[in-house]
Amino acid sequence: MAKFMDVHHGMAGITEDQLRMAHQADLAIQSDENVQFEHAWADPDAGVVYCLSEAPSKEAVRRVHERAGHPADEVHPVPLSV
Amino acid sequence: MAKFMDVHHGMAGITEDQLRMAHQADLAIQSDENVQFEHAWADPDAGVVYCLSEAPSKEAVRRVHERAGHPADEVHPVPLSV
């Protein structure tokens, strides 16, 4: 398992409810891919959402987000953290 | 106080030690601006670093990172989180 930060663009105007529902959609299926989404942060003005997860691979993160209806624009392994 | 996610590009090859030292440099001066850096995550291959903070403003985050020697390329207020 490794840590990943993924990024969604084009989310301008996202609301608290929409962020929570999107996160819930990930949580509902993440076990199929052995992914754990931990946090998500949104900038509704710039339309950017960052998601932090633990996952077996970048592809696993991508598949969960795609199946949940909000594919990620970038998925970065982040092996270093403080 | 609000939450911010800032992003540094061009950090390819960053090591665990370098990330820790950069974070320590922020922590050493952050109180001057009433900023609290909470976490940082690095993708050494893509050269991207994400930093999460609590701060009074985007400008305060920018000033701490600049004075610490590693200006941020983007600073996003992230008022929504899950």
TrEMBL record, chains A, B:
One Pfam family cited in the UniProt record for this chain: SCO4226-like
Region Disordered, residue ranges: 62-82
InterPro entries per record: SCO4226 (IPR042557), SCO4226-like (IPR025336)
Chain segments annotated as transmembrane: none
NCBIfam families: Ni_bind_SCO4226
Basic and acidic residues bias: start-end ranges: 62-76
Taxonomic lineage: Bacteria, Bacillati, Actinomycetota, Actinomycetes, Kitasatosporales
Protein's recorded name: SCO4226 family nickel-binding protein
